[in-house]
């Protein structure tokens, strides 16, 4: 990011995408290894998940057999999958955000230094993730309640209740879900780059999103839509397309879609890093690169001078 910090606020969505895709060129080996070791396994697991659960679900749907073993296998697999997904999602976020910030401060970047910083960064991201998860649980409870109300409206053929429930369900899914996702992504970056995490990171993320909520919503919705399309094509061709497509065609399509999802996830992580700097610039919150440099060094066990914050906007002359 060669632009002066005060000019980052003027970046459009297209500019953010261009800026994000140009970052790996500054340290191609580091991003190649991050992609290969963290983002690829994450992307592969997301798509391959349905390949392993589909046969189990098919057996469970058979009314003539006992399904105790299948349910046990399914629950164990789902548990392991969620742990894997959670771990690699946080690891990928930590690696990319730390590397982008290091490049931003002209700090020496290498895959080994990124790996060395991950344990400390992971702890902060985990605490923030727990707080976001609590918010998502509350959201899902409300969403489920109105979804039940929607089903009741359909069964009772109540047009007023039906319209009301449909509007609320639509708004909850499209607006609240997208906003919470944007809040989570930005809070993850805040947790790495500022001396706050958990609820404080969510609060900081909420403040940074003001004035840039629409841009964040477009970016998040675009990412979710692309991921949804990739999963949809993978499911229809690779998972359920055995009757219409040969094995070679399904392997070819599956490999291609995994590659596309890897690129989408990498760009998504880069975008959320760049978007953080855009929000900081929009709110005229300058980032002292020397303090940020020291903050990043703290993850590597380097000496960090006593400084209260990486934000210089609160200093008074």
UniProtKB/TrEMBL annotation:
Coiled coil: none annotated. The lineage of its organism: Eukaryota, Viridiplantae, Streptophyta, Embryophyta, Tracheophyta. This is Uncharacterized protein. It comes from Nyssa sinensis. Keywords: Membrane, Transmembrane, Transmembrane helix. The chain crosses the membrane at residues 31-53, 74-105, 125-153, 160-180, 186-203, 215-239, 251-279. It comes from the Eukaryota.
């Amino acid at each position: 990011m060669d632009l002066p910090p005060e000019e980052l606020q003027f970046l459009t969505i297209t500019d953010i995408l261009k800026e994000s895709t140009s970052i790996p060129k500054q340290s191609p080996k580091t991003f190649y290894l991050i992609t290969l070791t963290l983002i690829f396994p994450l992307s592969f697991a997301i798509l391959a998940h349905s390949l392993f659960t589909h046969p189990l679900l098919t057996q469970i749907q058979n009314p003539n057999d006992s399904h105790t073993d299948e349910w046990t296998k399914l629950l164990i697999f789902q548990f392991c999958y969620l742990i894997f997904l959670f771990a690699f999602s946080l690891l990928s976020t930590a690696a990319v955000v730390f590397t982008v910030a290091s490049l931003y401060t002209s700090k020496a970047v290498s895959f080994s230094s990124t790996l060395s910083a991950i344990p400390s960064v992971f702890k902060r991201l985990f605490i923030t993730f727990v707080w976001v998860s609590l918010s998502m649980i509350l959201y899902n409870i409300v969403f489920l309640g109105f979804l039940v109300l929607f089903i009741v409206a359909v069964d009772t053929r109540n047009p007023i209740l039906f319209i009301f429930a449909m509007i609320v369900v639509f708004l909850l899914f499209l607006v609240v879900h997208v906003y919470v996702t944007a809040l989570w992504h930005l809070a993850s970056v805040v947790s790495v780059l500022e001396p706050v995490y958990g609820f404080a990171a969510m609060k900081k993320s909420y403040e940074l999103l003001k004035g840039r909520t629409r841009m964040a919503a477009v970016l998040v919705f675009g990412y979710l839509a692309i991921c949804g399309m990739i999963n949809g094509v993978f499911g229809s061709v690779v998972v359920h397309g055995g009757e219409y497509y040969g094995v070679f065609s399904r392997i070819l399509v599956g490999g291609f879609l995994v590659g596309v999802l890897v690129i989408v996830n990498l760009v998504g992580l880069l975008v959320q890093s760049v978007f953080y700097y855009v929000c900081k610039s929009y709110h005229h919150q300058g980032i002292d690169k020397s303090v940020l440099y020291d903050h990043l060094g703290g993850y590597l066990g380097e000496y960090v001078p006593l400084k209260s914050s990486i934000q210089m906007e609160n200093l008074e002359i």
